[in-house]
Amino acid sequence: MYTASDLRKGLRIKIDNEPYIITEFNFVKPGKGQALYRSKLKNMITGSQFERTFRSVDTFEPADLREKRMQYLYKEGEKYCFMDNENYEQVFLTEGQVGDAKNFLIDNIEAEVLFFEDRPLGISLPNFVDLIVTKADPWAKGDSVSGNTKPVTVQTGYQLQVPPFVEEGEKIRIDTRSGEYLTRVKG
Amino acid sequence: MTQALRGFFLERDYLEVETPNRIPAPAPEAHIDAIPSGRWFLHTSPELCMKRLLASGYPRIFQICKCYRDGERGSLHLPEFTLLEWYRRDMDYGAMMQECEEMILYVARNLGCGEAIMYNGKEISLKLPWKRISVEEAFRRYAPLSAAEAMAGDCFEEMLVSHIEPRLEDEGPAFLYDYPIAQGALARAKKDNPRVAERFEMYLGGLELANGFSELADETEQRKRFAEAIRIRSAAGKAVYPMPENFLQVLGSMPPAAGVALGVDRLVMIFTDSPTIDTVVTFTPEKL
């Protein structure tokens, strides 16, 4: 159980059976009055944000959030299927829950799936993934001015800008946080 | 800054005093928590000791000291902060508001800022006199309900913080005065309206800088208010402080007077255009 004085940015609490993360927080205390805890909260399921002011007597339950390492199996319609390799339990996440990570999901990749109680909320991928370039225009010699880039498509269908020397069939490393090209990978 | 403040008070024949920081009985107030020090406490303000000096005959006194309040930490709060507190015999809160604005203007001129300062992207003119708005009027103008309704509905602080203080920012320097009596534990009730205390808060750039009032000098009434504060504290499961008997005993011999407490760190914030209190101290508690 938390009290208002435990509140801080980043803390995750449960209100009306839904998980919220505190995105902004300030302690205020007008004159001789009582302390107030002004907070901005974000619903971790719907993403909706609101402001709320708490008093020091208010108490909160921590949100039961856990991350579980799971393997991505396949996509079926709009659902993405992940499996727990320890007990072979499978869960489905919506496209919205997977978010930008869908650009880097290849079969059997391992991801951290965030659960609130038993509900999956979202995933986080390793910071770097290696993907194969499936479509690229050939490198026109002489077009080697530094700073130049060209668009390519990788095996997940994701398109990004890469240096002109990257060829079809090569493997490239991508930063999943920014979605940007990092380097070519051998093998 | 402290040199300028000292200069102002010394020019006006105030005596600088020092009172102990570690005391056996802080003033029982519902929402101010003292930090224990052994079996005693660190003072939350030098108010009780300074009023005893007033009672023993010192007519004009000021003090710049560290004060300590448990659990107060935010962008405008530190659990250890610097307070300027002063008392003057035969004055009331109206005269003290005037002394406050004269003091800020004196400091500004002394620091070479002239009559205007920049804070938070806005120019604040310090020209006298500053605006004076009663709490009742401020609620009427800016809040969806009256001050009395807010007190009855137990949301006075919420209204102040969310509806009134943001608007005061646009008003320039201003005094909010005549607070509900329950919000002025050591202040004298107004003669023609006993439901409000002769208390004011000074606002500069939306920041609450100083709190002042006509001092309550009635032992029986003060004892009653302390007992009520102790009851509220104990009902809320908070630490209960001993009744400050030595203070209460001399209260009857205290002459009519008014006093003000001003947060020096916040004044420095304003004059250095700093967004948080963290930037005006050498070390915050988190960095120690």
List keywords for this structure.
A: 187 residues, mainly beta, OB fold (Dihydrolipoamide Acetyltransferase, E2P), 3 domains, 6-stranded antiparallel β-sheet, 5-stranded antiparallel β-sheet, 1 helix, B: 288 residues, alpha+beta, BirA Bifunctional Protein, domain 2, 3-stranded antiparallel β-sheet, 14 strands, globular
| Span between termini of chain B | 24 Å
Count of domain modules of chain A = 3
Q: Name the pair of protein chains with the most residues at their interface, and give those residue counts.
A: A-B, 16 and 26 residues
The oligomeric state is heterodimer
Q: Could you say what the CATH architecture of the largest domain in chain A is?
A: Roll
Distance between the termini of chain A: 52 Å
Proportion in β-strands of chain B: 25-35%
What structural category do the secondary elements of chain A indicate?
mainly beta
Major pleated sheet of chain A: 6 strands, antiparallel
